[in-house]
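Reviewer 2 asked us to include a model.

Predict the structure of this chain.
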Amino acid sequence: MRRLLGGVALTIAIVLGLLLAVGPLALGYLAKAGYEDLLTDLVEDLPDREILENSYQRGWFASSAAFEVLIPPDPAEQAPLRPTRIRLDSRIEQGPLLWLTTRFPPVIGRVHARLAVEGLPVVLPVLPISIDLHGDGSGRMQLRVPPGETLPTAQAMGLQHGPLDGDLVVSAGQEAVEVRLMLSEGVLTTPTGPLARLSDLRFEADRPDDSAGTGRLRVSSVELMGATDGVGSGAPVQSQLRLEGLSATLSRTLREGLLDLRLGLAAQQLATASMTYGRSELGLSGERLDVEALADLGEGIRLLATDQVGQEMRGLFTAGLIAGLAPRFIASATRIGVEPIRIETPDGLVLGRLDLRLDPGTDSPSRLTSGVVDWLILLRADGDLELPEAVALDWMTRWLEPGIEDGALPTSESAAEQAARQEAETLLAGWIRDGWVTRRDTRISSALRLGDGLLTINGKTVPLR
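Predicted model (structure tokens):
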């Protein structure tokens, strides 16, 4: 019996010894496969890129890797930009102390990485990242950045930031994703002073599968600054726009190549240099958007912004883009909604909504051309806007003022504002007199309807043919 027990103990010891000896080697292959999958997810959605380095040195209990990619600037951008350089240096743990001391599913590899990104409009700090690769194919990434500061340059803004914490969880099969990001404070800086600051940023997102996802953003305050006269000028930096209690929610649903998007924006308080508003809300939605048509539209807009389409060909190119894409959006019955529009002002509420949809009814033209009116008859629109007259005049004044300041005759800022105010009052009075706008006490309103090639504004119909 003693010999039997001794033999069993010896066998177990040998098996454990073999596992401890060979296990790290086998797990090293699994860790490398997980690392390569991570890189694939990182670069698959990037535009044209050049891989500068992609090395992996596999060891017995630890491995090292280096990855660097260069992304050329987008030719559609008007301003000259530098290429974006992304470098990821990693050390991968894969020894028995790792996978024997973790919970199920066991961690087969732990990546300690440093991510450096250059060429962005903002100079970012080096980001320390820790990634756990689990045995079932899932993973968890943690980002822990201590407070710090990067200095601005002539080409990029600097960043002063508090602690930055982030987590990314990917399920087995990499279908479900959860993201969490927190930043206590951040300031964008330029060589002449601060440009923008925010406090208490919290972002969460979840994607249960490839067809759905939701993102939520909360920021206690966002402030955009005015420009200073120069470094050390001593001039006070004034806020041009301040948002308190900003929140945003974005959801997406994809079914059979058609995309539904919903974006909700809200702020507890919105303050400009001349006006302070209370709670403001804006909702945007897009339903039954053809994904491939959206991609083609984006590519067409990008080409129009470059020199690849000559000036003499832009009209023909735009007409061809309309002729090719309009029928595809019409066939999917695309709908765009703007609702609600709600702004609390000192003079009262601003309320509005707009609904746009393309209706491929039975009376649709059998053959659409590039002519706008030809397919515009399939567009349906329904919208209303009501606001205080004082607010309307203030907005119109600020919209007209830059044109008056840029006029041929030199004028002071106060004179330009006075002239813009007078022009706004004249325009609004004419619209009310002609029936395009309705006035009730101190509020004005108007309604828009579009259908069957007829545009109706506040009850006045204008044929589009």
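Residues 1-23, 229-236 have pLDDT under 50 and may be disordered. The first strand starts at residue 50 and ends at 57. We have added this to the supplementary material.
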